[in-house]
C-alpha cells in the first residue's frame, strides 16, 4: 500500500510549543534580504529592510544548532534605525556587538586590539550565517500569542556562559580576517 494512503508508519507529530524562556542555545543567524541599501550608513547588499513606519531593520532567522531544540527556527528583528529616535538603533548595535563577541569568543569588557578588531565587520553581509550562543526569550506576536525571540547573545563573561540548556559555550577567541568574504562555513545551509 502507498505511504500516502496508509499513515500508520508515519512518524509522530513534533511539538511546536515555544522553547522555554531563558534556554541557552548555539544558533546560526541568517538575514532575509529586504532590498534596502543606504551607502552612508554602510548598509549595502540589500540585507536591510525598510518598514512602513520608516524603521530600518534586519529580518533575521535563527536556527538552533544542537541540543533538544536542534533545527527549531526563531525569527527576530535587529533594529538599525527608527525615525522616533536613536534607541532602536542603539539596541541593535549593542545586540550585534554581543553577537560578534559571542561568535568570536571575546568578553564584552575586553578592549584589547584583537577584541576591537573582532567587533569590526566589512558590511552587514558579514553577519549572514554567523553562529553564536544566544538566550531564547518569549514575547507576544501580533495576535497576542507567545512566540520565541532572540535579543541577547551570550558572551564568555555572561552569567549564562557555559550553561548547556540546549547549546554550548562560545568558541575560543578568534580574530576575524581583516577583509575577504565570509568563509563557506558561515554560509546558510541552503547555500552550501
Number of helices: 2
Strand content: 25-35%
How many domains comprise the coordinates?
Answer: 1
Enumerate the spans where pLDDT stays under 50 for 5 or more consecutive residues: 164-192
- Sum up the overall morphology in one term: globular
Structural class: alpha+beta
Major sheet, described briefly? 7 strands, antiparallel
Distance between the termini: 36 Å
Mean pLDDT: 86
Note the run of SSEs as H and E: EEEEEHHEE
Percent helix range: 10-25%
Number of strands: 7
What does this structure look like?
There is one protein chain. By secondary structure, the chain is an alpha+beta fold. The protein has one domain (24-160). Helix content is 12%, strand content 29%. The chain contains two helices and seven strands. It has helices at 87-104, 113-118; strands spanning 24-32, 36-38, 43-50, 56-64, 73-81, 131-140, 146-153. Strands 1, 2, 3, 4, 5, 6 and 7 form a seven-stranded antiparallel sheet that branches. The longest helix has 18 residues, at 87-104. The relative contact order is 0.20.
Amino acid at each position: 500500500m502507498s505511504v500516502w494512503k496508509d499513515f500508520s508508519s508515519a512518524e509522530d507529530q513534533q511539538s511546536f510549543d515555544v522553547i522555554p524562556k531563558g534556554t541557552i542555545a548555539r544558533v546560526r543567524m541568517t538575514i532575509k534580504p529586504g532590498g534596502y541599501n543606504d551607502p552612508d550608513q554602510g548598509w549595502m547588499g540589500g540585507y536591510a529592510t525598510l518598514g512602513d513606519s520608516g524603521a530600518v531593520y534586519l529580518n533575521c532567522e535563527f536556527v538552533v544548532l544542537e541540543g533538544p531544540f536542534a533545527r527549531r527556527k526563531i525569527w527576530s528583528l535587529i533594529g538599525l534605525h527608527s525615525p522616533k529616535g536613536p534607541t532602536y538603533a542603539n539596541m541593535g548595535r549593542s545586540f550585534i556587538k554581543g553577537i560578534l563577541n559571542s561568535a568570536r569568543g571575546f568578553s564584552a569588557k575586553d578592549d584589547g586590539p584583537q577584541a576591537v578588531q573582532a567587533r569590526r565587520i566589512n558590511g552587514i553581509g558579514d553577519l549572514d550565517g554567523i553562529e553564536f550562543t544566544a538566550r531564547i526569550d518569549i514575547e507576544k506576536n501580533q495576535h497576542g500569542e507567545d512566540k520565541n525571540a532572540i535579543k541577547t547573545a551570550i558572551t564568555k563573561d555572561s552569567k549564562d556562559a557555559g550553561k548547556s540548556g540546549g547549546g554550548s559555550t562560545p568558541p575560543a577567541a578568534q580574530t576575524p580576517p581583516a577583509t575577504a568574504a565570509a568563509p563557506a562555513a558561515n554560509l546558510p545551509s541552503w547555500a552550501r
